[in-house]
């Protein structure tokens, strides 16, 4: 919570949404590509299948679908959103940001937008920033998205990594409220000395794309699985305790823990270290594998959908991964969003807003091309010897 003037402002999660590609890849399917088996994968990871983005699906399309579902759940119009943060390790492009593409497609015409890169901790990082912007009075409504197409940066010849990852997206809507609750405490941390443990070496400014980088598979995920495993179990335990204490609570007050869905063994080890019962830890990685920054919002959505989170519950979200980076948040779940009474005109606006956003985007794209042809380049300004513009 934060002070705005004399009142305390809280950031509540009032909408949630997810999208997963329809294409399922089972462990049996993977065993046709690399030398592995369901019998090897399940006991070591808990993963049985994952979703793989189709040719027309990407971080943008999936993030958009999840964001739209979250706005619909909150009954909030995209024009009411002040900021869009998209956590992703697999952005649509280096730039523009995936968040800006989602902003345009939603028709969120009053929103700022940026991507956030913090590996699999990205969503919880973004939630922490979004909550603090709301608590500081910066915005009333913020969309926080995690969207990933990890299948596009997976080395499908490396059985040590390709079994782990999947694609998907999740999103939440944060809204300012004077009612106590919402995001109660957050924590973000990093240890860049472990950067090499989980890395896509090429494609950035150090190693731009070249025939050599492609031949060496340097545009795909490289991981020291054992070290990442040790790091993960360490930080989940420590950061969970810290963030719960920061919220003025104890572990006993937490109804549900929603950790990053990387590996069942990591979650089990952390659960043992925390001394909490497995029934209080949400797991859905058997269906999706590790979807990086999409995994926490995907798990959160499913936990709400299946009734594992109820109004008033305290929950802890934990993310960890490449960076190394990790983050945690304590959230008190609020009551379900009150359905707003809308006039006929407002209902008509609501129904038309997304088709209109598409038309607006197309028209503007065409206009930028026409404007560029008609007006050409801006004339260079020259300055005479007296320093005056000519
Ligand atoms: N199928 C069959 N055998 C496999 C295999 C697979 N998919 N992957 C690795 N192996 C083999 C290795 O080749 C090696 O064989 P060898 O002993 O003959 O050389 C053996 O299994 C052990 O390999 P290792 O990499 O040491 O396995 P591991 O016990 O550490 O398990 C992981 C690998 C990836 C399951 C495990 O390290 C892990 O879960 N790490 C955390 C990863 C993670 O969650 N990362 C994301 C965090 S955000």
Mean pLDDT: 94
Q: Let me know the number of strands.
A: 14
Radius of gyration: 22 Å
Assess the beta-strand content as a share of residues.
15-25%
Query: How many individual helices?
Result: 11
- At the first level of CATH, what is the class of the largest domain? Alpha Beta
User: The CATH topology of the largest domain, please?
Assistant: Peroxisomal Thiolase, Chain A, domain 1
Helix content: 25-40%
Main sheet summary: 6 strands, mixed
Query: Which strands sit side by side, in order, in the main sheet?
Result: 1-2-8-7-5-6
Q: Which molecules other than protein and nucleic acid are bound?
A: coenzyme A
Under the CATH scheme, the architecture of the largest domain is 3-Layer(aba) Sandwich
In total, the number of domains comes to: 2
Structural class computed from helices and strand pairing = alpha+beta
Unreliable residue runs: none
Give the end-to-end Cα distance, rounded to a whole number of Å.
Answer: 54 Å
The global form is globular
